[in-house]
Amino acid sequence: MKKATLIFRILLGLIYLVFGLDYFLHFIPYQPMHTGAAADLKAGLMGTGYIYPMMKTIQILGGISLIIDRYAPFSAVVLFPISLNVLLFHTILVPSGWLMGVFLMGPNLFLGYAYRKYYAGMFVRKPDA
Fold it and tell me: How confident is the model at residue 110 (pLDDT cuts 50, 70, 90)?
């Protein structure tokens, strides 16, 4: 279990680090042009001026955190909504890219299971405070 956690933690961290850095440095040459609702969504998010830079910064910081194994359970939780949105975007709006969503959700779900003891405090029905 420890080896699998290490592999999935580093894999997820590298994916987020590379794609987060690519937004700022543009080193991945092929960028598919989306059409229809996918293009509208991306244009709207980029048009805000802050959503994409914020999201990519979170991806970079979360990726680094997972790679160096500092605050990894926290980073896995923070990155989970991004992984879920990538899966839904690539499954619903751009079905040809569904595999990318799986490559993010699979390791993220595994890490959620592996780190479950660290999340116990989040699943309290009624807090005392």
Answer: very high
pLDDT digits (tens, 9 = 90+) for 6-45: 999 999 999 999 999 999 999 999 877 888 999 999 999 9
**What are 20's two structure tokens?**
């987060």
Domain ranges in the chain are 2-25+35-118
Q: How would you label 77-103 residue by residue, b for 16+ Cβ within 10 Å and e otherwise? A: bebbebbeebbebbbebbeebbebbeb
SS3 string of the chain?
Answer: CHHHHHHHHHHHHHHHHHHHHHHHHCCCCCCCCCCHHHHHHHHHHHHCCCHHHHHHHHHHHHHHHHHHCCCHHHHHHHHHHHHHHHHHHHHHHCHHHHHHHHHHHHHHHHHHHHCHHHHHHHCCCCCCC
